[in-house]
Amino acid sequence: MIGPPLDRWGVSTELRPMAGGARNTVLRTVGLGRNLVFKTTTRGLDAIHWLTDVHRHAEDAGLVIPRYLPSLGGNLVEAGWTCEPLIEGQPFSTGDLPTIAPLIAAFHNATNAIAQRPGFRSSTDLLIEDTGGDVDLRTMPEPIVTACRAAWARVADTPTGVVHGDLNPSNLIWTTDGRAALLDWDECRRDLALFDAVQVTKATADERAAALAWEVACCWCTEPERARKLAIKLAK
What we know:
Elements: E1 14-17, E2 26-30, E3 36-40, H1 45-60, E4 81-85, E5 89-91, H2 101-110, E6 131-132, E7 135-136, H3 142-153, E8 160-163, E9 172-175, E10 180-182, E11 189-192, H4 194-200, H5 205-219, H6 224-235
Helix pairs in contact: 3-5, 5-6
């Protein structure tokens, strides 16, 4: 794959791959005074720009966010790549997740009036619609689609807001000043708050099932092997 056009951000340096990035290529710079992260993206420009206001609300809630850095030409995406500051610190553990529950709740409350991310649909939308974001229910076996929709329908009347969508320890870092940095907002959308909350607070069986159903649907096209393993749990 052709690497990021570093010159468009005024950068010339070595790049190294970073861990993670199951759906996108993720590279970091080495040796700069302020190191950067470059990621491939398939999102439309409107979906990328939508995150600007969302990130502001997340910062207001107390989270550290690696906001997109515009290129020298003022663009957030260049040749299919984004750029953001590298945030370094100590990794989260699963046991750390409950400590950020108040921050996540504050973020959800602050974003409950934000419109849906362009190109995305919520689990409630997908009770009727077939596609949105990384989800394409038309590619999935009908019994699994039925199981997903049944799981989402059972929680459809719960609170909504903007959700990060991939809240797990690998996307969280304790910064050097003790704050929590939340990374990788690629799957962010407007949806039921429980899709984040199940990771940081106690959840009901219905909430866990809805979150599992989302993982199955979201991964079916992009991470098919993982999706099929999760679908076995969904059927139980």
